[in-house]
Specification:
Length: 242
């Protein structure tokens, strides 16, 4: 058990693979969670909407705080992956990737920070990617968007520590979710056998389960991480990006 009992959290992408695990792990620590997603989720409170809608992002943290009475933790988890070299990328690919992966976190952090500051502090945890720190091949839009999230984390970690707001990020390598499996399916591979091959490429013997990442989010949100500000925690099972 951490010190999180009685705290409140807003989690975006709460219906997805990692988001669902984050919701459950936070709830197991006694946290009341508002989940935001375009799909329905299992959080205590649910707010449905599109993170491409600027007005939705600008108002979401206050709506969550109103529902729960306060906002102690904000987890910026929603994201999309856009695959392929830049020469295949359309204007719409660029606009969607930047809107969901970069503009939404910008708007959400900008709205959440004053709420947390007025309450004496809080914790923001961003879900970036190893690929945002060490670029991998043929995903330039995704990589640059996650590099922006990593950089935003480092900036906000410095800028808002004086308000007792800690901003940190987890940077996973491959995680077994729909995001990863859909890529294999789109390329005509059987996702189960492709993931078995990927497992063999990881020194720890397997790619991450969503719960492996959710446990790091819980740690970063908790007082156990009280001296971390702007940290990028790589979760890769010992496998470098290649
Ligand atoms: P996922 O596809 O299972 O979940 C993503 C969630 O975000 C979905 O529930 C989806 O509905 C929501 N979402 C997407 N666009 C939205 C929009 N416009 N409005 C509202 N909600 C929207 O993916 P996941 O693997 O759980 O990914 C979660 C985070 O982890 C993402 O930021 C992703 O980039 C990051 N990540 C994933 C991996 C991986 O291998 N799966 C690796 C590194 C980082």
């Amino acid at each position: 058990m951490t010190d999180l009992n009685g705290k409140t959290a807003l989690v975006t992408g709460a219906a997805g693979g990692i988001g669902t695990a984050i919701v459950h792990r936070l709830q197991a620590q006694g946290v009341t969670v508002t989940g935001a997603d375009q799909n329905d989720c299992t959080a205590n409170h649910r707010i449905t909407g599109d993170l491409m809608d600027a007005g939705f992002c600008d108002t979401l943290p206050l709506r969550a705080a109103d529902l729960m009475g306060k906002l102690d933790i904000f987890v910026n988890n929603a994201g999309i992956i856009t695959r392929g070299p830049i020469t295949d990328a359309t204007d719409d690919d660029f606009i969607r990737t930047m809107a969901i992966n970069v503009e939404a976190p910008f708007r959400l952090c900008r709205a959440a920070i004053p709420i947390m500051a007025d309450a004496g502090g809080g914790a923001i945890v961003n879900v970036a990617s190893c690929w945002g720190v060490h670029p991998g091949p043929n995903h330039p839009l995704y990589v640059m968007s996650k590099a922006a999230v990593a950089s935003l984390t480092q900036c906000l970690g410095m800028d808002h520590a004086h308000q007792m707001i800690r901003v940190n990020a987890v940077c996973p390598n491959e995680v077994d979710t729909a995001m990863l499996r859909s890529g294999f399916a789109a390329r005509g591979f059987d996702p189960d056998s492709a993931i078995a091959d990927l497992n063999a490429s990881v020194p720890l013997g397997r790619i991450a389960a969503p719960e492996d990442i959710a446990d790091i989010v819980v740690f970063l949100a908790s007082d156990q991480a009280r001296y971390l500000c702007g940290a990028l925690i790589e979760a890769n099972g010992g496998k470098p990006v290649k």
